[in-house]
């Protein structure tokens, strides 16, 4: 059994956002799967998806701070692809470091995350606009 | 055909560990799949999974050294989320850099890794405890 | 319905290469799937796969430059695993930072990438040789 749906996530500010509830409320069909895998795929090259701590918002602030440090915009002068500003090439790099897709097991009709896990959308652009995510579930 | 099972990996010391044999011995059901995909998902935010060199233990030492350099605990003063020590936020960051899940093809009843590939569990905490991994196999 | 095939990618120079067309032309069976997920898995520990910008070649140059900066070969003296040269351990590290496998949704017989997305093979070795990729498609 397979289910697929494209959803649109409203524009988010630059930084890291917990979207677990937004995914689940957009995909009630999860309930139809006893066992399965859910794949989330973001159709963009300057935003990314990861799984991390869901309870303390400071983790998201610290994470954004870290990625700005490790991919500094002050290095943008080293890059050729900066047509759209200092956050252009740096966003592509962050996207590859973090990744464009994640898989989450489904068990008894629910996504089977650990107690402290949530789904992050990482918006790397200053003005990224809305973002499209394809949800694909395979299971039974 | 789908198979899913949660396993518990015994506590490991901080660092990078080859767990290929531990996964296979916990999941004989791999043999039942002619073709498929196995997903390993770690239900934690301060440990991670990756695939890398399986033969020389120095790769695991060097890898741990690299991630300690690129996510230094001396930076912990920059972070807010350090309630549990210098290895708290840094472990979350490493978890996102490396990733919480991997997919491995199954071919003729065996995981189809390259000659030099093995499955790594990366324990980022000083005292991480046991770790839960969900194994999901989809195939035929 | 499941499809699996191992393909061989001809040797590439060190750096980052767009291989979307090479994957598609090697896997016409994508057309047989209305909905599905395609997994690409590279059977090596010193090359990697990611998804990023498909239009401007300077993104690939900048990306290579970034990963050489963040995993510098001048650090190789810190590592034990350098039997095959300065690009040995650094290649393993890059492989884990970027990842060995990606999943791409399939919709109506085509891979459903965003407008600006393409598949990158990242060759981290100076002389990497040909690379094997396993394509697994699950869907209907």
Q: Strand sequence of the main sheet of chain A, in spatial order?
A: 1-8-3-5-6
- Percent helix of chain A, as a range, is 10-25%
Per the principal axes of the C-alpha atoms, what is the gross shape of chain A?
elongated
What is the N-to-C order of secondary-structure elements of chain A (H for helix, E for strand)?
EEHEEHHEEEE
Mean pLDDT of chain A: 97
Q: What is the fourth-level CATH superfamily of chain A?
A: YjbQ-like
Strand portion of chain A: 35-45%
Backbone CA Rg of chain A? 16 Å
**Largest interface: pair, residues per side:** A-B, 35 and 30 residues
Q: What is the CATH C level class of chain A, in words?
A: Mainly Beta
Distance between the termini of chain A: 5 Å
The counted number of beta strands of chain A is 8
Number of domains of chain A: 1
CATH third-level topology of chain A: Jelly Rolls
Structure description:
- The structure is a homotrimer of 140-residue chains.
- The first copy, chain A, has three helices and eight strands.
- The first copy, chain A, is of the alpha+beta class and 140 residues long.
- In chain A, the strands form two sheets. In chain A, strands 1-8-3-5-6 form a five-stranded antiparallel sheet, with no helix packed on it.
- Chain A has one domain: Jelly Rolls.
- The A-B interface holds A 35-37, 50-53, 56, 58-59, 61-63, 65-66, 69-70, 97-99, 102-105, 107, 112-117, 120, 138-140 and B 2-4, 39, 41-45, 70-71, 75, 78-81, 89, 92-93, 95-97, 99-101, 103, 132, 134, 136, 138.
């Amino acid at each position: 059994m397979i289910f697929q749906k494209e959803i649109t996530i409203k524009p988010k500010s630059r930084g890291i956002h917990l979207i677990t509830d937004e995914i689940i409320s957009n995909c009630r069909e999860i309930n139809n799967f006893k066992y399965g895998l859910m794949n989330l795929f973001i159709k963009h090259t300057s935003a990314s998806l990861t799984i991390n701590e869901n309870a303390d918002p400071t983790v998201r602030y610290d994470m954004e701070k870290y990625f700005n440090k490790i991919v500094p915009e002050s290095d943008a002068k080293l890059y050729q692809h900066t047509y759209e500003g200092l956050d252009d090439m740096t966003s592509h790099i962050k996207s590859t470091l973090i990744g464009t897709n994640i898989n989450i097991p489904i068990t008894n009709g629910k996504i089977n995350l650990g107690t402290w896990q949530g789904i992050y959308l990482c918006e790397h652009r200053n003005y990224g606009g809305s973002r499209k995510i394809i949800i694909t579930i395979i299971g039974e």
